[in-house]
From TrEMBL:
PANTHER family recorded: ALKYLATED DNA REPAIR PROTEIN ALKB-RELATED (PTHR16557), NUCLEIC ACID DIOXYGENASE ALKBH1 (PTHR16557:SF2)
UniProt region (Disordered), positions on chain: 1-24, 53-86, 174-200
Cofactor requirements of the protein: Fe(2+)
Keywords: Cytoplasm, Dioxygenase, DNA damage, DNA repair, Iron, Metal-binding, Nucleus, Oxidoreductase
Name this polypeptide is given: DNA N(6)-methyladenine demethylase
Subcellular location: Cytoplasm; Nucleus
Swiss-Prot/TrEMBL catalytic activity: an N(6)-methyl-2'-deoxyadenosine in DNA + 2-oxoglutarate + O2 = a 2'-deoxyadenosine in DNA + formaldehyde + succinate + CO2
Positions contributing to Fe cation binding: H382, D384, H442
GO biological process per UniProt: DNA repair; oxidative RNA demethylation
Pfam family, one: 2OG-FeII_Oxy_2
EC number: 1.14.11.51
Length: 474
C-alpha cells in the first residue's frame, strides 16, 4: 500500500468483465438463526462520544516507565478502574499449551479463530503468539498467552480498556519516531489535492496509540432507540430477496467488482466483534501520523503484517511500539476466498470471459489493514502499491469489506477528483480490485451518517462511522 498521494494513505488500479452461478450468499461465519438474537441490549447509538470519546478512564498506576514495562512485562498492571466502570466485563485469560504453526489461505493454523456468540469472542491460537513477541516467553500477563478468551459478562467498554492496558502500552510516538536514524518517509507530503481532499491534519505527535474501542459502551437506555422489529425484518427480507434474485453486484471496470450487501448481517456482526477485540489488544487501533505531525483521518490496525504509513514499508513489527500485529482471523480468509470466487462468477456471467482468473487473479491474503472512519473520517485519493513487486505485477487483488455507515468512494485512473467515478459503499459491500484495476486511484470522501443497518448497531453497538478491512497479499 503506497499511499502514494503524498501522505494520502493507500491505494490500487484498472480494467475487466465476468459470471456466476449458484452463488450462495449465506453466512460463512455462522448460522443464520442468530440473525436477530433475543435479548440484545438497549443502546443509544448516536448519543455517544465522538472522536474525543476515545480516551479510556483507565490509568496506569504502577509507576513504571515504558521501557520498564517492556522489560518486566509480567508486572504489567491491570489498570485502575474509574468508578464508572466498577461492574465491568471480565476478560479471562486461558492458558493453552501449544502454539500452532502453519499458514495460508484457508490454511489450518496460523490464524486466530474467532468464536463469536452474542456475548463472547474467543481469540484462539496465535493472536498473541510468543513468536510474535521476540524475547518474550509468551507470558506477558503472568499466564500463557496463546489463548485469550474474552467473556463479556456485562458491560464491554471497561474490559476493553483493561485488556488494552494489560497487553500494550500507551505510547507517545513522538518519543520513538523522531529519533535519529528513524527511516525517512518515502514520499513527501502532498498539498491538499485537487479533489479538495486533504486527509492530513496537523497535530502535536505523529501517531497516537491509546485504547480505541470501535464499539460504544452499552448503556441501559429506554427502549426507544432500539431498531424496530419492522426495520430488522425489512433488512432481513431485503437480504434474502437479493440473494434469491442473484443481485450480487457489478463489474465496475476490468478487474474491479463490487459485491453489493454481500456480507450477511451475521458475518458483519462477527467481523465487528473480532475487530473490536483485536483492536483493543496489542497491536490494535491507533491513529497513524507522520513525523511532521500530520495525522490520517482514521484509526488503523494491521493484521498479519504491519504497514507503516510513514515509510510505506511492510514489516513484522509496528515501528511505533515494536509490537507484532495480530494474525488474520481464520474466518476472514474464508470470506475473502468466497468473495473472490463469486467475483469470478460475476465476471464470467457479465463478460462471457472464459477465464475470469486472467482478469482477476486469485489472491491469498497475508495482510489486512483495518480502518475505522468516524463521521468526519476520510482518505485521500491514492494507489495501493506498497505490496511486493510480484504481487503488484500479477495484479493480485485488494479485497475490501465495508461495515457500518456507508461511504462515498471515488476511483479512477488519475488522482484528479473531476476525473474519477463515485460509488457508494454500504455496510456489507465487498469491493475487489485487481488485474488491470490493481493500480486505480481511490479514496473515501465522506461517511454518510446514520446509514448503518439498525440490526448491526443493535448487535454490536458499533460507533457511528465505518469499519473497512482491506485484504492483500504481500
Ligand atoms: O476505506 C476504504 O474503502 C478504502 C481503504 C483503502 O483504500 C486503504 O486502506 O488503502
Ligand atoms: Fe487503498
Amino acid at each position: 500500500m503506497n499511499r502514494d498521494s503524498g501522505r494520502t494513505h493507500r491505494g490500487g488500479r484498472s480494467s475487466f468483465r465476468g459470471c456466476y452461478s449458484n452463488r450462495s450468499h449465506s453466512s460463512v461465519m455462522s448460522n443464520e438463526n442468530d440473525f436477530f438474537p433475543i435479548g440484545s441490549n438497549n443502546f443509544d447509538h448516536h448519543l455517544q462520544v465522538g472522536d474525543s470519546g476515545e480516551k479510556s478512564c483507565y490509568t496506569r498506576d504502577d509507576g513504571m516507565s515504558q521501557s520498564q514495562r517492556r522489560r518486566f512485562p509480567n508486572n504489567s498492571p491491570s489498570g485502575s478502574r474509574c468508578s464508572k466502570h466498577e461492574n465491568a466485563t471480565v476478560y479471562e485469560y486461558r492458558p493453552k499449551t501449544s502454539w500452532p504453526a502453519g499458514t495460508g489461505f484457508g490454511g489450518q493454523n496460523d490464524t486466530p479463530e474467532i468464536l463469536g456468540t452474542p456475548d463472547a469472542v474467543v481469540l484462539k491460537d496465535d493472536c498473541l503468539s510468543p513468536s510474535r513477541y521476540p524475547g518474550s516467553t509468551g507470558s506477558n500477563l503472568g499466564v500463557e498467552r496463546d489463548q485469550i478468551e474474552l467473556s463479556s459478562v456485562e458491560e464491554t467498554e471497561s474490559c476493553a480498556a483493561l485488556l488494552h492496558y494489560d497487553l500494550s502500552n500507551k505510547v507517545n510516538i513522538s518519543d520513538s519516531v523522531d529519533k535519529p536514524g528513524t527511516p525517512k518517509p518515502s514520499h513527501e507530503r502532498s498539498p491538499p489535492n485537487s479533489s479538495g481532499i486533504d486527509d492530513l491534519s496537523q497535530a502535536k505527535c505523529q501517531a497516537v496509540v491509546e485504547p480505541f474501542d470501535i464499539c460504544l459502551p452499552k448503556i441501559a437506555t429506554p427502549v426507544m432507540l432500539k431498531p424496530s422489529l419492522l426495520v430488522k425484518n425489512r433488512e432481513k427480507r431485503n437480504e434474502l430477496k437479493r440473494s434469491a434474485e442473484g443481485q450480487i453486484g457489478n463489474v465496475l471496470r476490468p478487474g474491479m467488482v463490487l459485491l453489493k450487501k454481500y456480507l450477511s448481517i451475521t458475518d458483519q456482526v462477527k467481523i465487528v466483534r473480532a475487530c473490536r477485540a483485536l483492536g483493543l489488544g496489542s497491536g490494535g487501533f491507533y491513529q497513524p501520523g507522520y513525523r511532521d505531525g500530520a495525522k490520517l483521518h482514521l484509526k488503523m490496525m494491521c493484521l498479519g503484517k504491519n504497514w507503516d504509513p510513514e515509510t510505506g514499508n511492510y514489516g513484522d513489527l509496528r515501528p511505533i511500539d515494536s509490537v507484532v500485529p495480530p494474525g488474520i482471523p481464520r474466518e476472514f480468509y474464508q470470506l475473502v476466498e468466497k468473495a473472490i470466487k463469486d467475483s469470478h462468477s460475476l465476471i464470467q456471467q457479465k463478460t462471457k470471459a472464459s477465464h475470469a482468473e486472467d482478469i482477476l487473479p486469485w489472491m491469498s491474503p497475508n495482510i489486512c489493514i483495518v480502518n475505522f472512519y468516524s463521521a468526519s473520517g476520510r482518505l485521500g485519493l491514492h494507489q495501493d502499491k506498497d505490496e511486493s513487486p510480484g504481487s503488484l505485477r500479477k495484479g493480485l487483488p485488494v479485497v475490501s469489506f465495508s461495515i457500518g455507515d456507508a461511504a462515498e468512494f471515488l476511483y479512477g485512473d488519475e488522482r484528479e477528483v473531476d476525473k474519477v467515478e463515485k460509488v457508494e459503499l454500504e455496510s456489507g459491500d465487498v469491493l475487489v480490485f485487481g488485474g488491470r484495476s490493481r493500480h486505480i486511484f481511490h479514496g473515501v470522501t465522506a461517511i454518510k451518517q446514520k446509514t448503518a443497518p439498525g440490526s448491526l448497531l443493535e448487535e454490536t453497538n458499533l460507533r457511528p462511522g465505518r469499519l473497512n478491512l482491506t485484504f492483500r497479499e504481500y
